[in-house]
Amino acid sequence: MVLLKNMASRITKETLEHLADLARIDLASAAPGAEEKLLEDLGRIIEYFEELKDVPTDDVSPVTGGTSLENVYREDTDTRSFDREAAIGAFPESKSGFLKIPPVFEHND
How far lies 19's CA from each of 12, 23, 36, 86, in Å? Predict the structure, then answer.
């Protein structure tokens, strides 16, 4: 197949081994014929990207963020989300306005 010959020349076995090393993939323990299959698959992927180069994009606006939505900002104001005294009163124990909890760490002297 002519297509596969062109693809094979783009991705060499050395390139495949280098990519596998970068990805920490052990090709030596792969199934027999796995390297050839990977070479073909990677070649097909590269060929697909080559085809995409021929797609006319002259009238397409560039996309910078994937959306045209913008952040909506509001004034930062100090508001209380709960009643502090009621929250402390709902806790089993408190001392001087702070929540009292059992010790987390024991001190060994």
Answer: 11, 6, 14, 61
- Break the chain into its structural domains and give their ranges: 2-52
Rounded to two decimals, the pTM is 0.44
Structure tokens at 41: 């698959």
pLDDT reported for residue 1: 38
Q: DSSP states of 72-93 as a string? A: ---------SS-HHHHHHHSS-
Other C-beta atoms within 10 Å of 43: how many? Answer: 19
Tell me if 8 sits within 8 A of 49, measured CB to CB: no
98 φ/ψ angles, rounded to the nearest 5 degrees:
-115, 155
Contact 90, 83 (CB under 8 A): no
Contact status, residue 42 vs residue 4, Cβ threshold 8 Å: no
